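Long-time lurker, first post. I've been practising inverse folding by hand and with some scripts of my own, and I keep getting stuck on stretches where the structure tokens seem ambiguous. Below is the full token string for one chain I'm working on. Before anyone asks, I'm not after the true native sequence, just a reasonable design that respects the backbone. If someone could post their per-position residues I'd love to compare against what I wrote down in my notebook.
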């Protein structure tokens, strides 16, 4: 069970940070006034986008030190930005240069007005954590399962993990292989298949046993994913339709919590060579549920959802 550790594997937390950073960046833009506070190459000031986004090749032809300093006011003064371009002039760079040239022709700076940082997700464009949190779940495009997720009571960190699952942004072995970060993408739970996020959370034999035994505790073993269940969201949606409305929140919370712990188990196996059995994972899930009920009882009130059931019908 020895897995090679490489420097690359330690990148994962940073990748996670990058996703949050990218989402934050995607949520803000600048309304340019006098252009003194806005960075020409990197801030989102041109039709809500940055030049790095609009013209990535052109932007790569500019030194990073210049990018961190050049304000819009400086750049537009006698088209100083053109002199910032020092890299190779490939066809793509030149095409992008024309694009930015055209886009910057009609910009009028307003001398007595400060640049304003705007937040996309509220009508008054002021940043709030609630709107930031909601934007994670609404996103710019409707995503299957996102509505399901918003309504579910679960800790923010778990919901955020599911948000990444829905957007297929988890750094699974399959994804890392696709990006050339590793050669082997075999699932660390079953060693039988490629480790995609849907495999890990739904199709993997290890995972299916966890789901089956977990759901059996609640008398819901028929809802467990079977050999035909390949993807998380279709399985989850179908399963919740088979139970009464009152019970759906319980199932949703359980799905999110269990998926999150399965992901953590995958990380323990991948990075720490620590292996839990199905029994261990089940105990872990129950412990987490009890901890939630104690800690968040008044907020989440999940004890009424399944805390009671758990205490009366505990593990085999
Ligand atoms: Zn597997």
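-- Answer (accepted) --
I ran through it position by position. Result:
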């Amino acid at each position: 069970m020895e897995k090679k550790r490489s420097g690359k594997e330690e990148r994962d937390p940073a990748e996670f940070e990058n996703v949050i950073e990218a989402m934050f960046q995607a949520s803000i833009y600048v309304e340019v006034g006098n252009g003194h506070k806005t960075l020409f190459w990197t801030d989102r000031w041109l039709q809500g986008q940055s030049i790095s986004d609009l013209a990535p090749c052109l932007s790569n032809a500019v030194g990073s030190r210049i990018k961190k300093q050049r304000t819009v006011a400086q750049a537009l003064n006698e088209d100083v930005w053109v002199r910032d371009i020092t890299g190779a002039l490939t066809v793509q760079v030149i095409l992008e240069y024309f694009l930015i040239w055209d886009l910057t022709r009609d910009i009028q700076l307003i001398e007595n007005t400060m640049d304003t940082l705007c937040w996309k997700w509220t009508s008054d464009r002021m940043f709030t954590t609630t709107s930031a949190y909601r934007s994670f779940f609404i996103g710019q495009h409707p995503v299957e399962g996102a509505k399901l997720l918003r309504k579910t009571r679960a800790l923010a960190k778990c919901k955020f993990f599911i948000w990444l699952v829905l957007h297929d942004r988890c750094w699974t072995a399959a994804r890392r292989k696709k990006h050339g970060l590793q050669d082997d993408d075999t699932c660390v739970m079953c060693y039988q298949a490629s480790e995609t996020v849907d495999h890990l959370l739904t199709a993997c034999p290890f995972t299916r046993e966890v789901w089956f035994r977990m759901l059996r505790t609640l008398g819901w073993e028929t809802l467990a994913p079977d050999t035909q269940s390949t993807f998380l969201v279709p399985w989850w949606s179908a399963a919740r339709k088979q139970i009464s409305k009152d019970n759906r929140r319980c199932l949703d919370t359980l799905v999110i919590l269990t998926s999150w712990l399965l992901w953590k188990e995958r990380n323990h196996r991948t990075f720490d060579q620590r292996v839990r059995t199905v029994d261990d994972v089940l105990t872990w899930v129950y412990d987490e549920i009890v901890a939630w009920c104690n800690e968040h009882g008044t907020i989440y009130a999940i004890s009424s959802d399944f805390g009671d059931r758990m205490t009366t019908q505990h593990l085999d």
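A couple of notes from the structure itself: The chain has two domains: 7-119, 144-312. Residues 144-312 form one domain. Happy to go over any region you disagree with.
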